[in-house]
Structure formats: C-alpha cells, structure tokens
Amino acid sequence: MVWSADLKGKFSTSAAVERIRSREPKVNWPAYIWKPFLHPAIASNIWKLQQQIYVDDKVMIKNGFEVVSRCCICTAEQDCMEHTLWKCQFSINAWAWICSIFEFEIPQSFIDVCKLAHHKSPLSKEVWMIVACSIIKELWFQKNKKLFEEKSPQLNEFKRKIWQFVYEGGFRMKDTKWGQSYDQHIIDIFQLGVRQIKYSYIKECFWKAPDQNFILFCCDGSSFGNPGAAGFGIIARDSSCEVIGEMSGGVGTATNYIAEILAVIYALEWAFVLKAQKVIIRSDSKTVINDFCNDCVPWMFRARWLNAKQNSENIIFQHCFREVNFSADDLAKRGAGLRAGERIIHNGRPSFLKGVEMLNIVYYRIC
Ligand SMILES: [Zn+2]
C-alpha cells in the first residue's frame, strides 16, 4: 500500500483508512434518525424502510408471486409501502392531524419529513422527528395487527400511541426552545414540561483600518457546494483606507477550505507585486488564520507560502467576523463564477464603501 500524507503533510491512521476504504454514495437522512432521543426500535425500522428492507405486495409480485393485492387498511388500492405510508386514507388523516399541530404541509416522503422542521427551534425539530418517525413506524406495523389479529386501526388509538412515544422521548430531549408561542404550543400538547430557552443576542462589531505603513488584504473564499465551483476574492487597502485594488479568481472545483487558503496565498503574492513589505491578512475563516499562524499550510501551497513569507518583512494575520468582510465575500462569490485560473483584477478602483466610510459604521452579528 502506498500511504500518502494528508493535506497538511501529516501521516495519520485516519489518512491510511481513508486510503483503503471504498466510499458509498453519501446520503443525509441517517443523520436525522440516529439520535439519542429517538428510541432505537423506531430508528432501526426507519432505517429498514429507507434501505428498502421490507416485503409488501409490490415486492412479492416482482418476485413472481401471483397475489391479489389490496391495502388491508383502506381496502381501496393496491398494497405497497408507498401507499401505506403516504397515500392511504388512514395515513393521510394521521399526517393531517400532526401537520395541523406543527402547521406543516403534509409530507409525501421521508426526505420531505427531514426538510419540514428546518427553520424551527432545536426542540421543535426533535419533537417533529419523534412524531414523524413513530407515525411512519406505526403505519407500517399496524398492518400486522389488521392481518394477524383482525384489529381495525382506530385513529384515536393511533394518536394516543404517538403521543405516548413523544412523551417518553421527551425525557431524553436536551435541546432548547425559542421564546415563541409556537414552541410553547407544542410543549403543551405533548406535556413536555419545563424546557430551557435559548435567546439570541446581537453583537456589535467594527471594521478596523490597517496600522500605519501596513497594507491590508481582506481575503475570502467561496464555493457553491463543498466541494463545488469555488473562487476567492481579495480587496487591498492602504493605511489611509484607500482601495488599492481588488481581485476575483476562479479555483475550479474545490472545497471551501482550499478556496480560503488560496485567497491568502494570492494576497501574499499580490503584496509582492505591489512591493508591500508590511502586510495584514484578514480572513473570516478561523481555521485558515490558525493554519497560517502555525505554519501548517496544505503541502501543495507550501512552496508558494514559504516564498511569499520570505518576500515580506512583516505579515500579520487577523481574524474578523463575516459581517465586516462583505466586500471580499462579494468578490469571492464573483470569483466562483470564473473558470479555474481565470482572474479579474482592478487596480485602484474603489468598490463598495470607501474604507473611511466603513470605519464609521457599526455592524451587527447575531449570536
Ligand atoms: Zn390503504
């Protein structure tokens, strides 16, 4: 086996594992179901359904059995899992009931279920996941009750069961609610008791001018997808806040991290062209700033980094919040639309706000 070092030049066990493992296509639904608050009996059955480990009449017919197929719950349509979970009149009623509580649209697939609570509080997301997963599991399992015990499904009985699942799961839910009546409404319905609340607060931040004789390079990388079409943006200012120039560049398909690193490398190389000896590099990526400070740059850029370091008298790395790095961010987004290696440079063209104007503005960050 030829074992190579990782991006930062380290030989690690995980890099070796990475080398020999074979990768399956990535799916994102498992992240929603393997949670401490969701009972494994429920989660494992959702997993089976998603992996299509079940037998319904559709599968039987496909395997060559001749069966007269009819949904045993509504007796109206042919039996198949798609029908049982989403199309059967009984399941539609069950979903309509729960969706009226959560004010959601009725889902048509498990992917829909995962998406629905996206903009809700962490607690509401947990409750929704328990509710939805137990409904799916119960819709599947109640078929057995009907087939083998001759028990017809009752919607009220069904609702009580789901309620019980959520109530029990409530003891394992740890996430916080938001201070909204929406969350309180759900807590009251499922009697989840007292829950911790998370308040977001607004933080003031400021854009700072570079020190005397320093040239400031605000850098940012951007990628549409990770990895995806990536680009970087740099805007250079002198100590009187005057814009010296701006640069957008295309990286091709890369990760966001690589785009951020490249932004810094190009900024340093540009500093050399501008004959800047004292340089401030500012980026909103803490990882990138730390990596350059610790001299831990990906191996493919190492030579360029060492070269650039030699050419400057003083390089200072500064981290800033995304909120005050908007001009570089905008240039990076423009860069992501360019072809790999393509660059657009404007020298001395002031863009966005002038630095002096930026100094006098308070920016807000929601934490
Ligand atoms: Zn049916």
Explained architecture:
45% of the residues lie in helices and 16% in strands. It is built from 15 helices and eight strands. Strands 6-5-2-3-4-7 form a six-stranded mixed sheet. Helix 6 runs antiparallel to helix 8. The two termini are 47 Å apart.
List strands and helices in order, with pairings.
Elements: H1 13-20, H2 30-33, H3 40-50, H4 57-62, H5 81-87, H6 89-102, H7 110-116, H8 122-149, H9 155-169, H10 181-190, E1 202-206, E2 215-224, E3 228-237, E4 243-254, H11 256-273, E5 278-283, H12 286-293, H13 299-311, E6 314-319, H14 326-336, E7 343-347, H15 355-359, E8 362-366
Parallel strand pairs: 2-5, 5-6
Antiparallel strand pairs: 1-8, 2-3, 3-4, 4-7
The structure holds zinc ion.
H-E string: HHHHHHHHHHEEEEHEHHEHEHE
The major pleated sheet works out as: 6 strands, mixed
Structural class: alpha/beta
The end-to-end distance, rounded to whole angstroms, is 47 Å
The small molecules bound here are: zinc ion
Count of DSSP E strands?
A: 8
The helicity comes to 40-55%
Which residues form runs of ≥5 with pLDDT under 50? none
CA-based gyration radius: 28 Å
User: What strand line-up does the widest sheet have?
Assistant: 6-5-2-3-4-7
Overall, the morphology is elongated
Strand fraction band? 15-25%
The tally of helices reads 15
Mean pLDDT rating: 89
